[in-house]
Structures are given as structure tokens and as C-alpha cells.
Design brief:
By secondary structure, the protein is of the alpha+beta class. It has helices at 46-58, 77-93, and strands at 16-17, 20-21, 25-29, 62-66, 101-102, 113-118, 123-128, 135-139, 145-150, 155-156, 158-162, 178-182, 194-199. Strand 3 (25-29), helix 1 (46-58) and strand 4 (62-66) form a beta-alpha-beta unit.
Length: 201
């Protein structure tokens, strides 16, 4: 009873009781069924499953994935393919999940993204659900990031900074201290690309 466990839905923010954040995990299935169902067709894609994982961690939670075995006690090919896909992504981007939690208070991810934070390592991880046209704007991070790279291949991401005091032509038009990331035109061949932001100490 000390865990809150929303099932088959994702909360909008860290789950709270009486205004206080509590330990929680999202209970999800690979398909629409808790047990094996031969004719079930609403299986989530690997992209959706990885997004669920990043979303939970960005909100201080855990993801519990249920998959039911067949009558012979094995997983069918759909389940095995999903597990293998998650494993491939974790091999490349697992450090954006393990040891991470929500971004520090006051930092918000851009639309179509999620932020996770490893306080011990001094790193933010930007999970990009909706790939932008080259530029992605992060308000409140100008002057706070030392280096940026795509996590899956360690290739550098070029950064530009615009402060609120620099004039009216802010990249984000937000009037805030904005860090702009210059991304490849095409989305990398990855379920969810992640940008690792090394913070200044």
C-alpha cells in the first residue's frame, strides 16, 4: 500500500498524495491483455515502450511491464521482438535511465520531449519523442551546459546560447535564457534518440 500503481495510463506528473510526491510505478502491458492472448492485435511498438519508460523516469516513477507466456510457458515472437528492441535501446541509452530521476525544479522539457537527470553524474538527458526540424530550444539552460552529444553514438551536438538580456531576437522568442541544440536533419535510426547534456559544475 506504500506504492501508487496507475494501470494502463500515464500520470501527467509525479504522483502525489496530499500534495506530497510518493513512490509510484506505472503498470503497463505489451499488448492490451494482461495474459497471453493469441488474437490480441494492439501490441505497443518498441518506440512506445521506450517512451513509456522515459516518461516514468522523468516523473520520478518506475515502469512495470507485464507480458504473459503462452500455454507452453514461453513468450511468443511478438513479445521476444519487443524485449529485444528495448534491450538494444538500453544498451546504447541505458545511462539516461539508470540512476536518473526528474529534471531539477524549474527546468521543463520542450514539447514532445522528456528530461531525466543524474544528479551524481551532473548530466541531463533529453529524450526526443518528436524529432524537430534541426533546432531544439531549451529554456533556462543557457550557460549551464558544458557539452552536448547524441547518446547512442557519442557524436557532438552543436549548441547556441541566447540570454534574455541579449536583445529581442531570442531563438525561442521566450525572453528566457535559451540553449538551442542543432540536430541532424534526419532522426537517427533509434526508437527514442537521447541528447546527453553535461552540466557545468
Amino acid at each position: 500500500w506504500d506504492f501508487k500503481t496507475p494501470e494502463q495510463v500515464q500520470p501527467r506528473e509525479w504522483v502525489r498524495v496530499n500534495g506530497q510526491p510518493v513512490v509510484w510505478e506505472s503498470c503497463q502491458t505489451f499488448s492490451g491483455s494482461w495474459g497471453y492472448h493469441r488474437d490480441e492485435t494492439t501490441w505497443k511498438s518498441v518506440e512506445q515502450l521506450v517512451q513509456l519508460l522515459a516518461d516514468c523516469v522523468s516523473k520520478g516513477g518506475n515502469l512495470l511491464l507485464n507480458v504473459g507466456p503462452t500455454g507452453r510457458g514461453t513468450f511468443d515472437d511478438r513479445a521476444l521482438a519487443s524485449l529485444a528492441g528495448i534491450g538494444r535501446w538500453m544498451k546504447l541509452c541505458g545511462r539516461s535511465i539508470y540512476g536518473c530521476g526528474p529534471a531539477p525544479r524549474g527546468l521543463a522539457a520542450p514539447s514532445g520531449c522528456r528530461l531525466t537527470h543524474n544528479a551524481a553524474a551532473g548530466r541531463l538527458y533529453l529524450h526526443i519523442f518528436e524529432w524537430p526540424i534541426q533546432e531544439l530550444h531549451l529554456d533556462g539552460l543557457a550557460g549551464k551546459v558544458r557539452y552536448a552529444q547524441l547518446l547512442h553514438d557519442a557524436s557532438e551536438v552543436i549548441m547556441k546560447e541566447q540570454t534574455a538580456q541579449s536583445g529581442p531576437h531570442s531563438y525561442s522568442q521566450s525572453g528566457k535564457d535559451t540553449l538551442t541544440l542543432r540536430l541532424p536533419v534526419r532522426k537517427p535510426d533509434l526508437a527514442v534518440p537521447v541528447v546527453e547534456l553535461v552540466l557545468r559544475q
